[in-house]
């Protein structure tokens, strides 16, 4: 099928995610290798987005592709109540890399479903119903997960589930309290304590956080924040859920981002990097205390494709690649290189207010003025106000860079297998585009 026919059929029959359908002009993907992919016309793109920040092992890793083929020859599917080798192997492997006693797993097909089931498990285990979540967050598109999200994709599908309370974020660059770290004495944490008291801790089952905020700006919390949150949860008998759907599996230079602060949550949700996106799979990891609760009580959760053999076999191979190719340490090392290069961009360009990140999980924040920090595109801007974002994205694609541009952020979240020379290639193009932005803000 040629380029035009693929696009014609796509536009005729496909509903695209988060899009006004009549404005769609989809890139026609053909194939990829490592940190690069090509469209159906043969144009090369450097993948600075790792597709949806999930392609950690890169396009077409031969070890993972072979594992899928091998498992397909043995068993393509079976009911979720059966034990089978890929699922058993995966559980053992995950238990070795998850922190603390998080060694029991409920398998889903993605991150939103993982967060949905984390909510259920928290409410069943604690007997309480409220969930605290942060405003600058995204936890998925299902009703429970989108209600948790502070992301502007939430209001159009409200009302959501009851019992969700939002709190402010540890966003030092745009501090909600007008303070500066560390002189702020972590006012953002005191704020959460105040909300807990107002809501009554006896009604709160859990607090869910992205240890490093993802699609809402790559917000890395200040030291002491995650540790303080763990202390608050312990003090009030509240579970701490770490949503590692995007930040897990080496993205930040650790298996899980929360490990940077040496904190063990009660629940971890994961997906994306679990299979590097090759097949759908998510999981909810729970502590041994929570697991024991369900030894003699019903777990009211179920999915037809929970623990799917093909997906589990893919995850086993993916975890082996992380270990054998030392991709976690590689992401940490390349992350240091990336941040040094991004700091250079910040110094050279008037439109760059801040660069921030950890590992290969970074963002460039664009402003009209470095002093006022006025964003070039405001938070939750609608279509008519997105001209600059759209032009930046158009220029990136025209230059062969596939990256996420959202409001006033350019994300740099490539596959963990990207080379330093590929990073420099892509950042050189970003540099040119920032010069364009300097001239119009």
Could you provide a short overview of the structure?
This protein is of the alpha/beta class. The protein has 13 helices and 15 strands.
Write a structural description.
The protein is of the alpha/beta class. Helix content is 37%, strand content 15%. Helix 3 (62-74) runs antiparallel to helix 10, helix 4 runs parallel beside helix 10 (309-324) and helix 12 (387-398) packs across helix 13 (420-438). The mean pLDDT is 97.
Number of helices: 13
Helix/strand class:
alpha/beta
What strand line-up does the widest sheet have?
4-10-9-8-7-5-6
Strand content: 5-15%
- Got a strand count? 15
Task: Provide mean pLDDT, rounded.
Answer: 97
Helix content: 25-40%
Weakly predicted, low-confidence segments: none
How is the biggest beta sheet arranged? 7 strands, mixed
From the alpha carbons, calculate the radius of gyration and give it in angstroms: 22 Å
Q: Ends: how far apart?
A: 43 Å
The global form is globular
Order of helices and strands: HEEEHHHEHEHEHEHEEEHHHEEHEEEH
């Amino acid at each position: 099928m040629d380029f035009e026919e693929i696009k014609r059929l796509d536009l005729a029959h496909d509903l695209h995610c988060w899009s006004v359908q009549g404005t769609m002009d989809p890139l026609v993907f053909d194939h990829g290798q490592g940190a690069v992919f090509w469209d159906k016309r043969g144009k090369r793109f450097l993948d600075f987005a790792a597709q949806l920040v999930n392609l950690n092992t890169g396009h077409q890793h031969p070890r993972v592709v072979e594992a899928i083929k091998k498992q397909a020859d043995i068993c393509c599917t079976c009911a979720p109540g059966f034990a089978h080798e890929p699922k058993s192997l995966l559980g053992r492997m995950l238990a070795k890399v998850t922190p603390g006693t998080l060694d029991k797993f409920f398998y889903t097909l993605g991150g939103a479903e993982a967060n949905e089931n984390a909510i259920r498990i928290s409410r069943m285990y604690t007997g309480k119903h409220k969930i605290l979540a942060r405003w600058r967050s995204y936890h998925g598109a299902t009703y429970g997960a989108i209600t948790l999200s502070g992301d502007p994709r939430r209001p159009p599908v409200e009302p959501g589930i009851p019992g969700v309370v939002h709190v402010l974020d540890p966003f030092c660059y745009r501090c909600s309290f007008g303070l500066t770290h560390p002189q702020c004495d972590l006012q953002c944490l005191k704020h959460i304590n105040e909300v807990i008291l107002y809501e009554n801790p006896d009604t709160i089952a859990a607090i869910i956080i992205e240890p490093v905020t993802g699609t809402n700006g790559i917000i890395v919390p200040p030291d002491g924040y995650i540790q303080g949150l763990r202390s608050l949860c312990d003090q009030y008998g509240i579970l701490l859920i770490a949503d590692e759907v995007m930040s897990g599996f080496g993205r930040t230079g650790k298996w899980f981002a929360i490990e940077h602060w040496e904190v063990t949550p009660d629940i971890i949700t994961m997906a994306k990097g679990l299979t590097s996106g090759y097949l759908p799979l998510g999981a909810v990891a729970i502590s041994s205390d929570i697991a024991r609760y369900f030894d003699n009580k019903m777990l009211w959760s179920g999915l037809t494709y929970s623990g799917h053999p093909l997906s589990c076999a893919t995850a086993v191979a993916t975890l082996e690649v992380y270990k054998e190719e030392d991709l976690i340490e590689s992401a940490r090392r390349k992350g240091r290189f990336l941040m040094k290069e991004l700091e250079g961009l910040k110094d050279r360009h008037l439109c760059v207010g801040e660069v921030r990140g950890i590992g290969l999980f970074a963002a460039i924040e664009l402003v009209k003025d470095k002093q006022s920090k006025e964003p070039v595109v405001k938070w939750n801007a609608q279509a008519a106000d997105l001209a600059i974002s759209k032009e930046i994205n158009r220029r990136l694609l025209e230059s062969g860079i596939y990256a996420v541009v959202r409001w006033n952020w350019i994300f740099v979240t490539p596959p963990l297998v990207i080379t330093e020379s590929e990073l420099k290639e892509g950042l050189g193009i970003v540099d040119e585009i920032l010069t364009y932005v300097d001239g119009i803000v």
